[in-house]
Each structure stands twice: as C-alpha cells, then as structure tokens.
Write a structure and sequence with these properties.
The chain is globular and about 65 Å long. Strand 9, helix 4 and strand 10 form a beta-alpha-beta unit. Helix 4 packs across helix 7 and helix 7 packs parallel to helix 8. About 30% of the residues lie in helices and about 25% in strands. The chain has 13 helices and 18 strands. Strands 1, 2, 3, 4, 5, 16, 17 and 18 form an 8-stranded mixed β-sheet that branches. The protein has a 5-stranded parallel β-sheet with strand order 9-10-13-14-15. A 3-stranded parallel β-sheet has the order 6-7-8. It has 2 domains: about 80 residues, Urease, subunit C, domain 1 (Roll); about 300 residues, TIM Barrel (Alpha-Beta Barrel). Pfam families: Amidohydro_3, DHOase.
Amino acid sequence: MTTLIHNAVLIDPEAGTERPGALVLKDGAILDILPAAPESLDRFAAVLDADRRHLAPGIVDWGVKVSEPGERHKESFRSAGLAAAAGGVTTMVTRPDTHPAIDTPEILEFVARRAAQDSPVRVLPMAALTKGREGREMTEIGFLRDAGAVAFTDGDRVTEDTRALSRALTYARSLDALVVTHPQDPGLSRGAVMTSGKFASLRGLPAVSPMAERLGLDRDLTLARMTGARLHLDQITTAAALPALERAKASGLDVTAGVSVHHLTLNDFDVGDYRTFFKLVPPLRQEEDREAAVEALASGLIDCLGSQHTPQDEESKRLPFEAAAPGAVGLELLLPASLRLVHAGRLTLPALFRALSLNPSRRLGLPTGRLAKGAPADLVLFDMNAPFVLDRWTLRSKSKNTPFDGARLQGRVRGTWVAGRRVWPVPEDR
C-alpha cells in the first residue's frame, strides 16, 4: 500500500530545513520525498492533504516511566502508548525503575511482550545498571543487552559507591553498551525538594545547591574518561554544569546530555504555594538556569529533549510538598510544551526536532528521526499554532499529574504514523 501525504511543511532536522513538500510511504518506510504532489494521484492507495501543517519525524521520548510491572494503576503500556501516539511520540525509551526493577532478562522479556501486545507505538526498554538499582552489584549487562536492552541506568537513584559504578562502566565499555547516569551529588541532594535560593527559604522547604549537579557531573565524567565508557547524562539543568559538559565534549569524550521539557519551560517560582504537581527530580531551577539550559539546547551542547514522563496517582500527590511523590506526566504534552520555545523565538523547528527525534535516535543507534528515503515512516503531523487550554482530565495517561493543568498551549497533533501505519487519531477519536 502506497500512501501520499502532500501539501505539508516538511521539518528535516538532519538537513536543518523547513520547506513545503510531500512524502510517499510504502512498506513502513519513506519511499520518496517530493516538492509537491504529482498531477496524477491514481497510483496511490491513500492520499492525505496535510493542509499546510507541519510534518516531522516522530518523537523519540527518552526516559519514559511505564509502571509495569508493579504499579499498573499509575500507567500501563496501553495507556502510555495511547498518550504517546496522541502526543506525536512514535518511540518510547522506557526506564527500569519499576517494582521490581528491570534487572533480569526474564523481567525485560515480560516488559517487551506487554509492550508489543498493548502499545501502538514502538517501545525500547532500558535495563537497570545495578541489581535492584541499589548501586552495589552490576546486573548481567551482556544477557540484558542480548534480551533487548538499549541502555543501562539506575534512573534518578544515584550510585554512591564509586567503585561499583567504575566496574559497571568498565564492563559496559567492553560490550559497547550505553550507560545513562543522573548527575547529582547524593549527599547534598538527599531530602531536598527545591533548588536553594531566596524563594526556597521563604517557603521553608529543604533545598539543594545547583552545585550538587556539577559535583555529580564531574564524578561521572571522570569515570567516563577513566573507563572509556559511552555515557549519556539524563538531566543537565543548571548553568554551573554546562562548562564541564562543554569541556568533556571538546576533549573527545563519548558523552551526550539530555534535559526535560519541564526544566526548559518552568522555574522554581512555579512551585508557588506548595503546588506538588511542580515537584520534580531534580527540582525546578532558577530562571538563569532555565535560560542557560535553553541556550545549551539551541547550540547543541545539550543533545536531547524529553518528557521524563513519571506518572503518580492522586494519593501520592495530594500530600504536603515534602511528602508528595516527585514527577510529572508529559508524553502527550512534550510537543506543545516544547513549542513554547519555538513561539518565543528561542528554537527553530528543525533544531527542536533535532533534540526530540534525530539526536536520541543517533545516540541509541536507531534509523528513526530523519526525513530521508528509506528511513522508517515514523511521522508526526501537527498544527503548531492551534491554541488550547489544557484540562488534565482529558489526558490519555492513567495518571494526571501535570504542571501544565490550566495552561495555555499552542500545538495540536493531527496525525501520528509508526512504520507507515496511522496510530493517531484512533478510529473513535477521528
């Protein structure tokens, strides 16, 4: 079956271009890229007029938590997959911080089966770096890699035993496996729920200095240099960390970095009167840190932008700020929230999709993230100017813990394709 999508504005993050054009899809891949629709449409089994909306590579959201196994009431592969499709996410790279942690091939194979059965989008699981994510004994990295793990991480649980982390990185290097760390000094950050500053003092909340991120980053980069391991830093959110990251890249270390959309579009003032939907890990930063992170993403110093989707139920959020569970959902809101930066003139659309699609794909060795002949037909069609006010109860995720509830956003997904098959809107939503 050959499909034509024409009258679109094509966003090509690889070439850095934004231009009118049309795509021909066949057998799950992009067959051809045309400047416009041909005069005769008879040879196409399906034809879609994009009505001058933007068509881009599907989003690869790196760092999604799906709460299977253990907390399926918070998020399942079915609900997460629907939320992803509605948000233009065609690949979810999932975290291993489940109950139990994804630290054996058997648990990983269970997750892969559930994902294949229930999710309409691609799911690529990461596995735990250490057993139980306890930071003491490394997992069977080779067996987990053979079972389908695309990377290894303990999530936001920082490995305090430097020797154990060094051994894990050395072993990962021998297998050319990618390790993902969360740069933070655990001693300084333990128990903290805000970034230190006047606002945190006024609210009387335990806070952590931004230098805790710099200290954790320095350690992880030193170990990467010592072991030669491939390293991805999942959250770089402070101005203090950026010079060290820049030096590491300039020296040739095989290191990349990511940031969440919440840390690019919100700051610590948004916590307001103890609003727990704004409690995140790491905590929201000061405005100068947010500005620095935006500039680093625009320049390419920070490579990847994701949602860090972390579902929490109402009971765990309706608590005093210190006691509330951290995290926010973001699969469905990653694109419209990110478009705030485009509308503000801080990013171009090709630069945005470089961070959302191309760079995550390259780092993980995936063929996605490109508009090129032969590339997978993983696509998102969106109206970047369509305004709406978010009602969190309309989200497809089981959990509704978003800091954007009631926010004015721009950008509606009009279609999502995975391997050439349209997965959004689903029939009942068309």
